[in-house]
Amino acid sequence: AKAEGRNRYHFFTHALSQQLRQHRDIAANLRTSLSNNEFELLYQPQYDLKTGKVASCEALLRWRPQNESLAVPPNVFIPIAERSDLIVQIGNWVLENACQQARLWKEKGIEVRIDVNVSGKELEKTAYFERLADCRNQYHLLPKDIGLELTENILIKSDNAILENLRYQRDLGVEISLDDFGTGYSSLSYLKHFPVSHLKIDRSFLKGAPEKAFDSALMEAIVNVGHKLDLFIVVEGVETEQQSDYCKSLNVEFVQGYLYSKPISADAMEALLEKQG
Ligand code: C2E
Ligand code: CA
Ligand code: CA
Ligand code: CA
């Protein structure tokens, strides 16, 4: 039994050091990719349920290392990048490229807001809001052209200075979405303290609705409170017509999901926007 315990101990420490090594390698490769510009932004449309038209789009990062076998999806590399300052450089790249894209589209007469995902670690650096303003100025954009997506856990942990900065951006006209709503540690009562304009309900709630009474009760409660607080509701992960109809029945404003479109390249997004006029 003692030997077995020792083996298990070795097994775990081995697995742990292997994982550490893996994370260290991913971080090193990300660093290389940053200097080689080996990333791409895909865009996923967010539809206005009333008009059926694209209202905005979310920028989603993809890693395209030269050695394709090194690539891992964002839900793997973002958390690793968040453990170091890498996320700040990656966030810069995302912001810069989203602004550049918004400018290109404007020049072609295409007006669409681009929402970028922002990590808590980026906000902690006070320079974030200066960079945002600089980027908007550099590409001659308006505050409404670039939206921010933040999770509730970020907002709960944010100090007053960050909340003040966010409030200021809201006053300027920046749309701020509370991402993955319902999966974090906050409660509905927190909502009125956060400077947000949109509530994005996490797709896990939609999954069981409308059949599962508990899931639909939660969906309805979130939508109702959101609307009482004058927030727009966005439902993500809409995959079926039935889910779309359910969102309509709840008077949800915006939907996003594979039913409408997967995240697509800038060119494909442009074609989509041009087609709808
Ligand atoms: P998220 O912000 O919640 O983004 C939504 C994720 O759901 C995306 O995964 C999207 O491709 C996926 N999705 C969209 N519609 C559907 C659907 O109908 N069904 C299903 N099953 N999935 C759907 P993706 O692109 O792999 O991104 C994963 C996460 O990585 C994002 O979750 C976000 O937290 C993070 N991320 C992505 N890009 C960035 C970025 O530029 N910066 C930061 N900080 N995080 C990012
Ligand atoms: Ca998001
Ligand atoms: Ca989300
Ligand atoms: Ca998520």
From TrEMBL:
What's the superkingdom here?
Bacteria
Q: What is this protein called?
A: GGDEF domain-containing protein
According to the record, which residues of the full protein are present here? 297 to 573 of 573
Q: Domain EAL, which positions?
A: 23-277
